[in-house]
Amino acid sequence: MTDSEVKLEESWKTALGAEFSDPYMGELRRFLLSEKEAGKRIFPKGSEYFRALDLTPLDAVKVVILGQDPYHGFGQAHGLCFSVRPGTRIPPSLVNIYKEMQTDLGIEPARHGFLEHWARQGVLLLNSVLTVEEGKAAAHQGHGWERFTDAVIRMVNDRCNGVVFMLWGSYAQKKAAFVDQSKHLVLKAPHPSPLSAHNGFFGSRHFSKANDFLISRGKEPIDWRLPPVADQ
Question: What residue ranges carry the coiled-coil annotation (predicted)?
Answer without folding.
Answer: none
